[in-house]
Design brief:
Helix content is 34%, strand content 26%. The protein has helices at 31-39, 63-73, 76-85; strands at residues 9-16, 23-28, 52-60. The protein has a 3-stranded antiparallel β-sheet with strand order 2-1-3. The radius of gyration is 14 Å and the shape is globular.
Length: 87
């Protein structure tokens, strides 16, 4: 019997193409759909700095772990970590 497909949760990092100093960190289970949503202007924060490109992402098997990592990246020490290792 085949295992059910594994649902991954992604913490993603975006950079504005037109405003490269603008970045965004988010969480989703569907990375392509979420990028499309950002680039269509559906997110109030990111709509002003479209278009966006994915700089990187980290996949997690559990949403709570992904959410904890997203929260960390949005903290002061998390921003420093992201600048050193992910941007």
């Amino acid at each position: 019997m085949a295992s059910p497909p594994l649902l991954m949760h992604y913490v993603y990092l975006l950079r504005s193409v037109d405003h490269p100093d603008r970045t965004y960190i988010g969480l989703t289970a569907d990375l392509q759909a979420r990028l499309r949503s950002h680039n269509e202007g559906a997110n109030r924060y990111t709509s002003r700095h479209r278009p966006w490109t994915i700089v990187g992402y980290v996949a997690f098997e559990s949403r709570p772990k992904a959410a904890a990592f997203e929260t960390y990246l949005k903290s002061g020490s998390g921003h420093a970590f992201a600048k050193r290792h992910l941007w």
